[in-house]
Design brief:
single chain; 1 helix; globular
Length: 586
């Protein structure tokens, strides 16, 4: 019989559910006590608001995929709820709202097993994204103007013809946690009426002649030009670009579940799962709190899973308002840069946002891939030893590692021309019953050689491909090939061109050596304009069957000219039994 978990109440350790005091010290004490028990434990909050400041949060030196790489400015991470070296743990919010301050990771599971985070909402008092709405616009006395509306939680100062964003002031240091000027470093635009978001240039702070703070978080900007603004009602979502902290972090852990959570904002990046096993994300609402006046819910991706094995299950979630991809599941290619012995290689992280943590463990199986063709070389090998970064400190070089294998390595391995993938850490994936909307990028990115099922999802007005399958050894170095992907029973409404994009980075394309294979697209509904449904490169055994394609605009629409399907260097393609508006065609 399973043991009844001990109950640890954060309020009993001094956490304040009224939201008046900083609850971070009490939460840290409660979690440390729970860890000391050494047995199953349920850590509970209560209904109420808990303020969590970073100054007394747990601090760990950590290196996290797709964030700040080896940059030593950001090596130390503040973590609000840290489950570390623990087993059989439930963090139950019981309806609590957690309000984070400054730059910190909301929660993390590190070297832990059987961990559940559930039943709470969380947000940040001052997101590092500023959502500015054009509340009024026009031309007076020959000059254009805009009136900008700023949500609560985005403090600012007008300084002449410039606007300084002040983040939030630390109660300890008396200085802002972050600051920036005018349009910051990156902008995307959200149209609340059309329910669409896209990346674009920011005109708000160009040719400014005068700027006036009108009070009540409204700013008048007058311009030196007379061209009337055409962006009334649009929201400019502006941010800096450094990814200092993951929004949440799962590392070297197994059987981790996130369930029934309102994730109103993820600060400086999304949820990162890194070299962990069996991750479930169920009924998580990734969306800004309507009461906040904001539309952004993540600084970048929502969910980024790198080097996961076992099962990844993402079900019945809402993904609304990210600044990058809602779901990205991949491995990592490391480039071969030296061969110190017949059975050893020096491997290098190539993208600057990823470094500092182990990519291989003894016993892992590794496949070697030619960068030019993205085709595997003959002869896999098993890792016997690794000399490299450990993810916890900066004692050893953070971007390279020496890996020793159980056998002499293939002669075809070329320095700079071959990459290595850890194929032990590749998951089976189910993405089911989710809603994707107000996304400026792709919807689901996935590259794993294990089975993938994408079913019963709604993709609404994606601004790039709804589903993207790459395998990249030139830019992001996100691996690897797919062999069994089913895309079934989804709806794609007002999608971008193409809807499904298969784009490995092989520069030498040979249909006899495809990168991807075994992809089935069936029983989906596409409500589309004049766009391509599938653009696929280097794929074999592809089936597009029993889908319904309904052109937007109905019978009176202008003729469409875009090809529905584009295949390059691909073989064994089946397109059959699809309903194209008025009938069935092959």
């Amino acid at each position: 019989m399973a043991s009844v978990p001990d109950l640890v109440d954060v309020v009993a350790f001094g956490a304040d559910p009224t939201g008046r005091a900083d609850s971070a010290p009490a939460v840290v004490a409660a979690l440390r006590h729970a860890k000391s028990l050494g047995r199953p434990v349920r850590i509970v909050f209560s209904e109420g608001i808990f303020q969590l400041y970073p100054e007394q949060a747990e601090t760990r030196e950590l290196y996290v995929s797709n964030t700040a790489g080896a940059d030593q400015r950001y090596r130390d991470k503040k973590i609000g709820l840290l489950v570390e070296d623990m087993h059989d743990v439930i963090v139950d919010g019981r309806g609590a709202k957690l309000v984070y301050h400054g730059l910190q990771t909301a929660f993390a599971a590190i070297r832990s097993t059987d961990v559940t985070f559930t039943n709470f909402s969380f947000d940040y008092a001052a997101p590092k994204v500023v959502d500015v709405t054009v509340a009024d616009a026009g031309v007076t006395d020959g000059r254009a103007y805009r009136i900008l509306s700023v949500p609560i939680g985005s403090p600012y100062e007008v300084n002449g013809t410039h606007l300084t964003w002040l983040g939030e002031t630390s109660p300890v240091s008396g200085t802002p946690y972050w600051s920036g000027v005018d349009g910051l470093e990156y902008t995307q635009i959200h149209d609340p009426s059309a329910q669409r978001t896209w990346r674009a240039d920011n005109p708000l702070f160009t040719d400014v002649a005068a700027m006036l703070d009108l009070g009540d978080r409204r700013i008048r900007v007058d311009y030196a030009t007379a061209a009337p603004p055409r962006d009334l009602g649009l929201v400019y979502q502006m941010r800096l670009i450094e990814r200092e902290e993951p929004g949440a972090f799962i590392w070297e852990s197994s059987n981790v579940t996130l369930r029934s959570i309102n994730a109103h904002y993820l600060q400086t990046f999304g949820i990162v799962g890194q070299f962990s096993e069996d991750i479930t994300i169920d009924r998580v609402n990734f969306a800004a709190d309507p009461a906040s006046g904001r539309t952004t819910a993540s600084f970048a991706d929502f969910v980024q899973l790198s080097g996961i094995k076992g099962d990844v299950t993402i079900t019945d979630c809402v993904f609304d308002g990210p600044h990058d991809d809602p779901i990205n599941i991949h491995g990592t290619y490391l480039e071969v840069v030296a061969k110190p012995a017949p059975d050893a290689l020096v491997l290098s992280y190539e993208h600057p946002q990823t470094a500092g943590f182990p990519q291989f463990y003894p016993g892992d199986e590794v496949e070697f891939v030619d960068k030019l063709t993205m085709y595997p070389l003959a002869g896999r090998a098993v890792v016997t030893a690794v000399d490299g970064p450990n993810g916890l400190d900066h004692i050893k070089p953070l971007t390279t590692m020496t890996v020793t294998f159980d056998r002499p390595l293939p002669d075809a391995i070329e320095l700079g021309g071959t990459v290595a993938e850890n194929i032990t850490w590749t998951p089976t994936v189910v993405v089911s019953g989710n809603i994707f909307r107000n996304v400026p990028t792709r919807g689901v990115l996935v590259t794993t050689r294990k089975p993938v099922l994408i079913t019963g999802n709604r993709f609404e007005a994606m601004s790039m491909a709804s589903i993207y399958i790459s395998s990249d050894a030139y830019q992001w170095y996100e691996s690897g090939p797919v062999t069994d992907v089913t895309i079934r029973g989804n709806s794609f409404t007002r999608p971008a061109d193409p809807v499904i994009f298969i784009e490995p980075t092989n520069r030498d394309v040979d249909p006899a050596r495809p990168v991807h294979r075994g992809i089935t697209v069936t029983k989906n509904t596409f409500d589309v304009g004049d766009i391509t449904l599938v653009n696929a490169k280097s794929v074999a055994d592809f089936h597009f069957t029993a889908n319904t394609i309904r052109p937007i605009g109905g019978p009176g629409r202008p003729p469409y000219t875009a090809p529905l399907f584009v295949f390059t260097g691909s073989t064994d393609i089946q397109i059959a039994d699809n309903d194209y508006d008025t009938g069935t065609a092959s």
